Amino acid sequence: MEEGERTMLRSEWIAQRQQRQSAAGLDVMTQLHFARRGEITEEMEYVAKRENVPAEVIRAEVAAGRMIIPANVKHPELEPMCIGVESKCKVNANIGNSATTSDIDGELEKLRVAVKYGADTVMDLSTGGGIHEIRESIMRNSPVPIGTVPIYQALSKVKRIRDLTPQIILETIEEQAEQGVDYMTIHAGILVQYLPMVSKRITGIVSRGGAILAEWMIENHKQNLLYDHFEDICKIFRKYDVSFSLGDSLRPGSIHDASDDAQFAELKTLGELTKKAWEYEVQVMIEGPGHVPMDQIKLQVDKEVELCHAAPFYTLGPLVTDIAPGYDHITSAIGAAMIGWHGASMLCYVTPKEHLGLPNAEDVKQGLIAYKIAAHAADIARHRPGAQDRDNELSKARYAFDWNRQFELSIDPETARAMHDETLPEEGYKDAKFCSMCGPKFCSMNHSAKIDEYNAQVLGMEKSADLVQLNVSGD
Questions:
Q1: DSSP structural state of residue 403
Q2: Hey, which bits of 238-394 come out as E strands?
Q3: Which residues of 77-104 are buried (b: 16+ CB within 10 A; e: fewer)?
Q4: Beta strands in 31-101 (DSSP E)
Q5: Which residues of 219-238 are buried (b: 16+ CB within 10 A; e: fewer)?
Q6: Exposed, middle or buried by CB within 10 Å (0-12, 13-18, 19+), for 19?
Q7: φ and ψ of 457, to 5 deg
Q8: 3 state DSSP class of 90
Q9: Over the Cα atoms of the chain, what is R_g?
């Protein structure tokens, strides 16, 4: 669907619902509100077609809190999608500037690349100058849901962390909601009594938002202001239909720190906050780790389902080893495929620059491709209807040496074509029944094709013999 067509459609849907809600004296616009009323919204219908499931399934999952449709009423450019265990596994891409780099064009290029290579949502994690302007450009150009971490912008409004106030936080959240942000990471689960629990960790608190709030609590000798003002945030979210992405401030930043008391204490609090958000009919997903060895990945999902009432689980990786700086899109994609298989609903990509620097557009591409592979592998493992169809079609094309069809079906057609053509540069070889790995004499598929011909002949002979036998028996 073209951008103008999308904007017009959603604008009409939203205006009609707002008119009905206003007439009824209600200020709640969330998909959860309508789902609980038994109403299938246009967004739910749209999502059902994308997921190839009945619209009632989408409505029921949203109503139960097991699925969210992040779709702010101020983001009409959006093409509705869903995040939930009964839908395909989704992938988020992080973009955004840093304190040392501020460039709207650069961020829009990252957005373009992210959407091109299949990002289902994008988070703008800008922390430097021009945050508002960068986000406005991203919002108006994004067909996918946009997420943010509002404490980053709030921090830019004060000189010291200790100077943050509830008013600054709430004003920032409302400002971003008004711009159209579809979901926000709110680190409301890190409590002052949990801070001593990180003393045995190697990497302490690795969440930026979590570390900021930890310092704020220590400096001000107060409880987490996001926790204390959680209901105020809910009231803002319900007006715009902003979804919570409840932040895992105490996620493990190394495999040594995985599954410790601090992580699960916060997770329990996130479960309590989930129920509070649901009271306001606000949609919720839960953020997860982090760095986790493979043998603890299923435990992470089981604990989230138990403590957070099966709200959608949105995980960063997890990275399954800590020894590969520069390749953490690989170390994390391994964990991402596994946690998606066990029940995570969305995977937050990791780029090759993780732990090393600010990603550029090429890093975004590499991270996304690794994670689209992981999410697709998880869908196959969970036996999603139709998930394996593309694999089967590509395999048939591969066996038939239909190179163009292979490229068309691949996750990165340009790279696949370039790699194939690199070592068979002459035009005569572009449709060859072999590649440069095996050549014409050692290609297993060429030999296998001859076996297929033989089997077909044998099968044909056997069928002929069976027919003769049937005729003889008939006589």
A1: H
A2: 243-246, 284-288, 313-316, 346-348
A3: bbbbbbbbbbbbbbbbbbbbbeeebbee
A4: 67-68, 83-84, 90-95
A5: eeeeebbbbebbeebbebbb
A6: exposed
A7: -65, -45
A8: strand
A9: 26
Tell me how many degrees the CA angle 143-314-58 measures, rounded to the nearest 5.
65
Which pTM does this prediction carry?
0.91
> Which DSSP string do the residues of 285-310 spell out, in sequence order?
EEEE-SB--GGGHHHHHHHHHHHTTT
**% the chain with pLDDT above 70:** 92
**CB of 75 closer than 8 Å to CB of 62:** no
State the DSSP H helix or E strand holding residue 122, giving kind and residue range, or none if neither. Answer: strand 121-124
Residue type, 405: R
Residue 3: Cβ within 10 Å count: 13
Average pLDDT over residues 184-189: 98
Give, in order, the Cα–Cα distances in Å from 143 to each of 45, 95, 292.
Answer: 17, 15, 32
The token pair at 148 is 């943010």
Nearest C-alpha neighbor of 203 from the set 67, 33, 322, 375 = 322
For strand 121-124 and strand 90-95, is the pairing parallel, antiparallel, or unpaired?
Answer: parallel
* Model pLDDT for residues 309-358, shown as the tens digit of each residue: 999 999 999 999 999 999 999 999 999 999 999 999 999 999 999 999 98
Confidence of residue 423 (pLDDT cuts 50, 70, 90): confident
Partners of 94 in the beta sheet? 123
Residues 286, 250: Cα–Cα separation, whole Å: 13
| DSSP-based three-state secondary structure for 405 | helix
Helix or strand (DSSP H, E) at 184: strand 183-186
Residue 219, token pair as written in the block: 């400096």
Model confidence at 74: pLDDT above 70: yes
- Minimum mean pLDDT among 120-134, 182-196, 266-280, 367-381: which range? 120-134
Angstrom distance (rounded) from CA 46 to CA 52:
10
- Bridge partner residues of 84 (DSSP): 67
* Span 5-15, average pLDDT: 85
